[in-house]
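can u pls check wat happens w/ pyridoxal-5'-phosphate
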Amino acid sequence: MNSAFDAQLNKELDALKAAGTYKHLRHLTTPMAPEVHMEEAGDVIVLSSNNYLGLSDQQEVIDAGIEGLKKYGAGTASVRFICGTFDIHRTLEKRIAEFLGTEASLTYVACWNANTGLFATICGEGSGIISDELNHASIIDGVRLASKAKRAVYKHGDMADLEAKLKEMQGLSPVLVVTDGVFSMEGSIAKLPEIVALCKKYNAVSVVDDSHGTGVMGKTGRGTIEHFGLTGQVDIITGTLGKALGGAAGGFVAGSEALIDMLIQRSRPQLFSNALPATVACSSLEAIDYLDKHPQLVDRLRQNIAYFRDGLKRLGFKPLDGPSAIVPIIVGDTAFAISMSDKLLKRGIFVTGFGFPVVPEGTARIRTQLSAKLTKDEMDRALAAFGAVGKEVGLLT
Ligand SMILES: Cc1ncc(COP(=O)(O)O)c(C=O)c1O
C-alpha cells in the first residue's frame, strides 16, 4: 500500500465532494425497468436509463440469454482469432448487418471498444479524421489513438466548418468524417444528409455512431440513418447493444466486407481482448428480432417522448428540442444539477444530473430519457415530482 499516493487521491476526491460534484453509485436490486428498487431510495421511477425499448427485462430476451448460457457456457476464454468465435457471433453479426443495411459487421465487448478499435486500424500516416466537437468520449479517445492521422474537430453541427476542414485535408486518404447520430447530452441529431453529401463531394468516408439512435430513430427503429432515408449511404456505422437492444453490453462496427475483414486482422481490442459473451450475443440477437416483430414499440416510445416533453413544457421547463428519447433540461451549475437530481430521487424519480467535465462548464443539466415501457401514470407521477422540485429549487414560479 502506498499511503502517500492514496492521500493524494483522497485530496482530489475531497475537492470533488466540496464542489458538490462527487458521484455516488446507486444500487439497484431489481431488473432495469420503468420502476426499480434502489437500495438507497426504495421504489423509484427510472428516467435515466438507455433502456429505450424496455427490452432489458423482456422475457424473450432473458430466455434467449439463459439458453445461450446453457448452450455455450460462460464464455470463450479466448480472443476471437485464437479460439474465441462461436457460431452465434457469426449469426449475430450477419443479423446486425442485415438490420442496418451494410455488407457485414463485427461485434466488440462494448461500443467503447468498437470506437477505440476502429480509427487507429484504418487511419495511419497520410490519412485524416474530422470529428464533431460534441462527439462521444469513446470517439474522442478512439481518434486520439489514431496518432499518425491528421486530425481536426469541426464546430458542432457546423457544415461550413466541416467543409473547410475537408478542404484542408484534400490529398490525404482515407479522410473520415465522424459524428454521433444522436448527441447523447443534447438529444439532438446529426445533419446526416449534409454530412453524407459533403463526404461524397470530397471523397471522404462517413462514420456514424448511432448508439442512442438505434431502436429510437427511424420508422422501424433502425436509427438516425433510417430517419433520414439514408440506408446504404453511410460508409461505417458503430453502435451499442447496451442500450435499446437489450441493454446488457456489447458494441459493433458495421460496414463493407473489406472493412470488417481489416478489423478482424488488425483492430487491437479484437486481437487482444475476449469476445462478446455468448449469453449477450444470444440476448441481443433476440432483442433485434423482438424489435422487428414489435415495431409498435418504436411508436409507443415516440408517444411517450412527446407526452413527457409536453408535460415538462406545460410545467414551465424549457427542455432542449430534439426528436430523440433524450430530453435534457439545462440548469447551469453542476452542483445545482446534482442537488436537483437528489431532490427528485427523494420524491421517487431516478434521473441524473450531468455537469462539467461531461458537458461544458455552465451548461449542467438534468437529462431525462424516455422508455417505451413507461406508463402514462408513471410519467404523470414523474411530472408531478418535477413540478414540485422545480418550485423548491426556484426554477419554476
Ligand atoms: C454515442 C455513444 N457511443 C458509445 C458509447 C459506449 O457504449 P458502450 O456502453 O457499449 O461502451 C456510448 C455510451 O454511453 C454512447 O453514448
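The chain has two domains: 22-52+295-391, 59-293.
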